[in-house]
Amino acid sequence: MIRPLIPLAAFVSSLTAIAATSLPAAPAHADAFTPPRVGWWGGQAVSLCGAADPTSCPRDTSAYTPAVWDAMVAGHGFLDYDVEYHSDFGPAMAGVNQRTDAIPVVREANARNVPINAWITVPLAYGTFANENNAVEIQHAVQDFAAWAQDNSLHFGQAILDLEFPAGYQPIYQAAMAAGNPAGLQSLLQGNFDPSHQCAAAATYAATIMWAHQHGLTLSGTPILFALDDLEHNGSVALQDGLDMAPMPPSGYDTLYLQAYRAFTVDLGSGLVAAYYREMQSHFGAKGQVSLGNTGMNPYTTTGPLVADIRMLAAMGASEIPIFDFDSTIKNWGAAGIAQILDAANHPMSPVELATAEQMSPTGTAARAMFATLDDVATAATPLATLATGHPQRPNAYPGGCTSGR
How many Cβ atoms from other residues are within 10 Å of residue 251's Cβ? Predict the structure, then answer.
């Protein structure tokens, strides 16, 4: 995840309106209802610096005021905080700024008993996000993270890998989604097909998960939304391979938070979020959760739709709801917005409200249809593309295609 490279919609609600908003009371059978834990991805707001890798510039944490921390404590919020390998921890790397400003944030969270998790990323030179091409680097990052946290007496609930495609693909993805035309992603399906390489990456990720568990580290993942379409559609994982995405499976992650983001310039609708949640539960059981985003973008230019989606997921039985992202939420809505969003988890939708919210929108339906089409294109292209390299291969099947990585 990274803040989309397209203009944010104008902020249209005031803190007064936020504070005045009321929600239905929790159901009478509240003793049978456990509200989901709500939190945010954060830590990517940086100041400008001269580093060749701008993602490693010093963080801007000026918005993390006592009032914001108080709201997180009162609402039982959690924070998934970005820590970058070679910048925040691990060996130095040319062009990457060395920084220590994550440590005070983690210690503040620890002191206030705000649960905090490590959202592990890597420098731009390695693709920023966990993907098919940097599995070994991610393995090193996880191992060095565990040592860094211990050496600095930092207490994290878990580490989370951002299971996407390389960072250079992001502008194309964001532009395609902003235009309401996921078909634009087809331009990325160029010469990246190598099922055997995908299986090797899956095996490395499985080994990383095993290492983490052997060393007492909870390790989760957050896949991009159409990784699930790849599993749902035609029995192969060709789309993930064609986009160099981190393989999903392996399924040994402690939790998977699918990035079920509806908020781009085009709103994909609450029904898309609901459908992805049900499918994550079907594939992964209680380990299958969803993340919401992007704050500050349509329709999340006000808190109302975000609050509604949290209430919807609460009614559906979600246990955790991370939101992208913390810095944007604070900027747009402040501590009052944090409090309102956290409180939404205590007010699940009624059955009538839920039935309406689960309806797919035309834009959401079109997006999923296009993801399925892209999957078909990737599946058909794999034998031809690999034949051209002199090593013809068929796409890896799902389930069971990469047995060494499962």
Answer: 16
CA nearest 33: which of 21, 25, 41?
A: 25
Q: Quote the tokens at residue 114.
A: 């705000």
What letter represents residue 286's amino acid?
Answer: A
CB atoms within 10 A of CB 20: 9
Q: Which domains does the chain have, with CATH numbers?
A: 15-405 (3.20.20.80)
H or E, element range at 311: helix 303-316
Whether 51 and 59 have beta carbons less than 8 Å apart is answered as no
At residue 382, the 3 state secondary structure works out as helix
Task: Note whether 331 and 63 are within 8 A (CB).
Answer: yes
Distance from C-alpha of 345 to C-alpha of 340, rounded to nearest angstrom: 9
Kindly report whether the peptide bond that precedes residue 362 is cis, defined as omega within 30 degrees of 0. Answer: no
Tokens 């946290």 locate to 149
Q: pTM of the entire structure?
A: 0.90
Residues 6+ apart with CB under 8 A from 190: none
Structure tokens at 180: 């309401």
Return the closest-CA partner of residue 303 out of 3, 55, 19: 19
CA–CA–CA angle 371, 374, 380 (5° rounding): 145
The 10s digit of each residue's pLDDT in 72-98 is 999 999 999 999 999 999 999 999 999
